[in-house]
Amino acid sequence: MEAKHNDDVIGRARVTDTPELEAYYDELRTLGAGALWTVANDIEPWEPRPSSIPMLWKYDDLRELVLKSSELVTPEQAGRRVVYLVNDKRRDVSAAVGWLYTGIQVTRPGESTSAHRHRASALRFIMEGEGGYTVVDGNKITFEVNDFVITPNSAWHEHGVAPDGKTCVWQDGLDIPLVNALEANDYAVFDGKQPLDVPVNQSPLSYSAPGLIPADKVWDKPYSPLFKYSWKQVYPALLEAAKVNDGNPFDGILMHYTNPLTGGHVMQTMGASMQLLRAGEHTKAHKHTGSFVYQCAKGKGYSVIGGKRYDWKERDIFCVPSWVYHEHVNLSGTEDACLFSFHDLPVIEKLGLYQEKAYPENDGHQVLD
Amino acid sequence: MEAKHNDDVIGRARVTDTPELEAYYDELRTLGAGALWTVANDIEPWEPRPSSIPMLWKYDDLRELVLKSSELVTPEQAGRRVVYLVNDKRRDVSAAVGWLYTGIQVTRPGESTSAHRHRASALRFIMEGEGGYTVVDGNKITFEVNDFVITPNSAWHEHGVAPDGKTCVWQDGLDIPLVNALEANDYAVFDGKQPLDVPVNQSPLSYSAPGLIPADKVWDKPYSPLFKYSWKQVYPALLEAAKVNDGNPFDGILMHYTNPLTGGHVMQTMGASMQLLRAGEHTKAHKHTGSFVYQCAKGKGYSVIGGKRYDWKERDIFCVPSWVYHEHVNLSGTEDACLFSFHDLPVIEKLGLYQEKAYPENDGHQVLD
Amino acid sequence: MEAKHNDDVIGRARVTDTPELEAYYDELRTLGAGALWTVANDIEPWEPRPSSIPMLWKYDDLRELVLKSSELVTPEQAGRRVVYLVNDKRRDVSAAVGWLYTGIQVTRPGESTSAHRHRASALRFIMEGEGGYTVVDGNKITFEVNDFVITPNSAWHEHGVAPDGKTCVWQDGLDIPLVNALEANDYAVFDGKQPLDVPVNQSPLSYSAPGLIPADKVWDKPYSPLFKYSWKQVYPALLEAAKVNDGNPFDGILMHYTNPLTGGHVMQTMGASMQLLRAGEHTKAHKHTGSFVYQCAKGKGYSVIGGKRYDWKERDIFCVPSWVYHEHVNLSGTEDACLFSFHDLPVIEKLGLYQEKAYPENDGHQVLD
Amino acid sequence: MEAKHNDDVIGRARVTDTPELEAYYDELRTLGAGALWTVANDIEPWEPRPSSIPMLWKYDDLRELVLKSSELVTPEQAGRRVVYLVNDKRRDVSAAVGWLYTGIQVTRPGESTSAHRHRASALRFIMEGEGGYTVVDGNKITFEVNDFVITPNSAWHEHGVAPDGKTCVWQDGLDIPLVNALEANDYAVFDGKQPLDVPVNQSPLSYSAPGLIPADKVWDKPYSPLFKYSWKQVYPALLEAAKVNDGNPFDGILMHYTNPLTGGHVMQTMGASMQLLRAGEHTKAHKHTGSFVYQCAKGKGYSVIGGKRYDWKERDIFCVPSWVYHEHVNLSGTEDACLFSFHDLPVIEKLGLYQEKAYPENDGHQVLD
């Protein structure tokens, strides 16, 4: 079991309140002040303390309702026609976990939104449909199921589905709650649709070459010049890596989507990853700082998060809060399973706040509550 | 005046609720979901939206109460004997502004605290006294009035005053609210006092040489190896710079305390600065993202923050929230004035969230409310 | 034509020698000194001054001789059985151009070398054969024609061909002349063959995913973790890029092989590139600092280098010295042509010595001498 | 003694020439080629191999001749009136050691040079005089004895002495030989004298504050914004550091002049250092890659370089070639001694070529030849 920390030690606040102290506190209060020792033990926890709880959103439950939104409101009315997923403990900030927002957006053939931008960063993971596209800073990007697409901090963007396509559904991920909390978000509407400055898919066709960078392109943005990561390249890469690597005991074959110009996360405030759980794989449990939203991209299995089991299959979405133990299981003995995730690791890492701990008992596996 | 943004445009949510929609929302709610368009305009503001208000804490009001704490509780009982300053709109997170905590700590001759460490970063700015010291990672650092001292993320630290010293008062600055919000804070108590591994003041005596770095020291920490910035070096440097620079229209002669190994901020999550307002200087107003806590280190004057005037003199503390216009005035026509500040610019900058705007009217000066 | 610089101006040495001065020079010479003005104009040229000349090595001429070496000496006797290519003006330092060495190595089925390492960096570009491999720091890497392989600074390496393979020929590139000139080269012999620590091709199978990096691998080396860049990935990437880019006026579709963890050159002292000249493409001429060795990987054409035409086809090797005008022509109207190159751009760029100039006349095309 | 490496091992070339091979070599030669095994052991040394020898230039010998140059030629005729010091083994490239040039420049009161710039970087160390100044990119910098001044890659610069000053003598250091070798040097003459764009000494007055950086200055150059490092700040800093540090066994208290914005070397291709040898200090011997030119700035002593003793006192200049053992001795038992040096460590380090070895015998001290 976890170490119990005791506040009855030197170095923690252990003041017994008295009438004199109470009067003192009142006096401080009138001056916009307080006595630190009355709050110290609360604001200085022994270990990281998450405010979210683990949650699972089953796509079977949500799909009908998501599609129904396309009958209830138009994209023009709604701005974006999205059902968002909200953590029971984070309703006040509209977050799915920690400071991360996620939602499911639906767009019908021939529909398209107007362009906008915001200081918050955004990403998409494609769930259903054909003929979908996004336009990022004048570059039209077409996408397919399980593709991962970014629309970074302050980049103009808009989405749509070709008239001869099929209704598209994708998961949005944004750090709106974080950027609001940091009191730095903004929003602007583009007057109409963006002009298409460059050939369709210029970004992925220029920057998807493994270990090759165009010699004559200048890129001065703080995010990846690669706007789309194609499942048809990503999945084979996972299979190749699985041939020659044991993988991580906690995560199987885990790869981060990266900015090919830096090797770092795709955007400044959110990262994303794809992991492959081999047939029958049952990882060990660990916990670490950082908040994660997962979507099952392939296969079926379950995760034990904070001692509870959450079963998932393709398109189900779930979250793992900061500093909560978690382990993943592929329920198939013959097929691999893949979990997409996005997270705030760029924030946690850049601010020096990452720490990790392996589950110390029971051969690394949690006992179900 | 500021541009008014109108939500009645394409690209913003403009849905009129109906009974059918209400029923739909109820259904979503049961699944841990919601319709984005019901919250979108609120969570995506047109401009950064601060949650704090400007506040001023006059040292004349607080000094007696701060000293009184040394009669009411011992350092052992209190952990740290500190009066903390709290923003009227941020009492829930014990913050002075944004996600920054500040307090005033008092230590009497011969007193010393036990050592501890936490993931949150801390800094001190010395207000009164003689013979004070801090011990950071085994290096004892002595300090004087207006010195600036850091005790970074996860560094062991403890404070005290020599038996033949005079009662010391200093301002503490920490990012406890931020690190709690990011669900990453922790705390540990050192068993007793740290052994003094190296000569007193090794850090400042090794790393304070202008433009010189010890060739044979290895430093692998993500924060400055210089733990103290001495007023007796800082103030002359400001005077020298003022001889040959016009200074910044919004801030006079403004310098950041930096890590001499990188030229960057002193710590990963908090920076600090010192600025000199020349005799009679009245800066222009601007606003920018990032939260700031100021202390007047020298002279007297006032700041206009969000259209209100806040008068300050030596030792007064005030705050400027994110995205609130502010300008500074030195009320003396013959003496310079100096403002120390600490802030979350390292966070704002690393996450790509900095933006700035000059006050567009009245020759750059706010009209008082 | 190029601007002519005249030394008869203020700021250049213009001293007329006299008997008194001659005596003075003699006196200086005895003290290990001299008068700067006697050498200044020579050692401070108006423009970069190459010491190499352009050269072309036709594979038709060399192939027989290269293969013959495998009858004349064994790998054990020769250390490495290599015919090296040497610039007529750089025989003293065994360089093909500038400070770059290149050679053609032949290995027969079943042969393998012992392992060694050196401070100089090395790379290979595969010209012929089947079943070839290299072992870099314990990782066996198999390769095919037109693959590009690195064996970086101080990495143990050895090469061989499988017993059931076909005689392999590849081009070696090293910066031996540079590292010797910088008085920093060294050499060590491994006692026997390296143990194979990891699965065959672990490096390329782990790091060749476009925009994906293994999350759990730690890499602390100053060079690319990707040891092989496969032609079967590189060539399609060039074709993709050519679909959506106009390319560079001087180089067509030019891509640098990069370290996927940094986006920078593959090694600290040598970089490598692949470029595609579209059917009928005739680039414009420019000159820049940095020395280049080219090998034609596909197609046929010619380059005009310093006013002379050099015709090349697959496997031919040629060089472009620093600050010599050059332009490239694909002679086919229907097929693309590809040029591999390696160069010292990492050195030139890191030391702040890069400059470039477009050919200013005749619509950017040199007039043949 | 050093390990002797034997070429008679597997992995080294051990071919016995035959008439057949001789014929083969001749054939290769006609094609601009050669057999690697005929040169391999020579171009791949077991250990770094310096081309320079240690040398000492006594100022007592040179001073008269240096001053005499001011009678023999004018600055206008000479370009720069400099006596340069040249290594007996590097006369072909006008280098004092390795690829570093050094000279002694004399300027009389009222004299000034015209402005020029070059791709090579330059630095000065002031030896004698009063009223000297340099102008770097429009910023006039005044200097005194033992000050260190930089005029970086491609920065316009010119020098002079005030009419009421005293004849100034300073040491120049440049990497002309290196930049020539890399075929990248250039030269341009400024038409007349530079306009003084900013107040005198703006650079040192703005950037000499320990641990403080101007918040509002933008600096996009790849070299230090601090153009002068004043002895009156440097020497006290060495004394402070000596109080709390044992120093380096090979170098005493050794500090690098650094770019305060990066903590790195002052320029891209040359660095500089100052070291203090405490009274009676006798350092241990080591050798490392990189070439060094020293000037004694204070005191007297000797260095043992490559087994020979070289005695020095104030203003004497000497060199240590790459990979030659050296140790330093302060001959005074009561006074400290200071050695200024400049070197190519930025090159050696950035290219991954640094290595170091302590003298393994005799308690770390060389036996004099």
UniProtKB/TrEMBL annotation, chains A, B, C, D:
Q: Which Pfam families match?
A: Cupin_2
Q: Which Gene3D superfamilies match?
A: Jelly Rolls
Q: Which residues form a coiled coil?
A: none
Per its UniProt record, what InterPro entries does this chain match? Cupin_2 (IPR013096), GDO-like (IPR047183), RmlC-like_jellyroll (IPR014710), RmlC_Cupin_sf (IPR011051)
- Molecular function per GO: dioxygenase activity
| Record-annotated Cupin type-2 domain positions | 105-170, 275-339
Q: Looking at the keywords, is Transcription present?
A: no
Give a yes or no for keyword Transcription regulation in this entry. Answer: no
Write out the entry's keywords from A to Z: Dioxygenase, Oxidoreductase
Record's protein name:
NADPH dehydrogenase
Q: Which organism is it from?
A: Flavobacterium magnum
